[in-house]
Design goal:
Blueprint lengths: L2 E5 L2 E4 L4 E8 L7 E7 L6 E6 L6 E3 L7 E6 L4 E6 L8 E8 L7 E2 L3 E6 L1
């Protein structure tokens, strides 16, 4: 079993930055491709950023491209989401997810709230 715990959310003004962290335990972190998703109130969960494979090239939603960066530290078993130039529309609960041997994500964290004030 794999456990994912997000942290780093909070309240920030528009134009500010936050870095989310997702600590992974339970299995060999380097085997898993990681992703970030978000869900705003009243909306469906949407894709934000992901690795095509563990440590591989990255993908971003058009709405965050050029502002957000996904990265990982295998020594720390952690994946990060650096978020710059934040906008009020980035307000959501952010979730990290892990997948192994599948195109679908097998494991999810509990989420961390990000609120961007205008």
């Amino acid at each position: 079993q794999v456990q994912l715990v997000e942290s780093g959310g909070g309240l920030v003004q528009a134009g500010g930055s936050l870095r989310l962290s997702c600590a992974v335990s339970g299995r060999t972190f380097s085997n898993y491709a990681m992703g970030w998703f978000r869900q705003a109130p009243g909306k469906e969960r949407e894709f934000v950023a992901a690795e095509r494979w563990s440590g591989g090239s990255t993908l971003y939603a058009d709405s965050v491209k050029g502002r957000f960066t996904i990265s990982r530290d295998n020594a720390e078993n952690t994946v990060y989401l650096q978020m710059n130039s934040l906008k009020p529309e980035d307000t959501a609960v952010y979730y990290c997810a892990a997948r192994y041997g599948s195109t679908s994500y097998n494991y999810w964290g509990q989420g961390t709230q990000v609120t961007v004030s205008s």
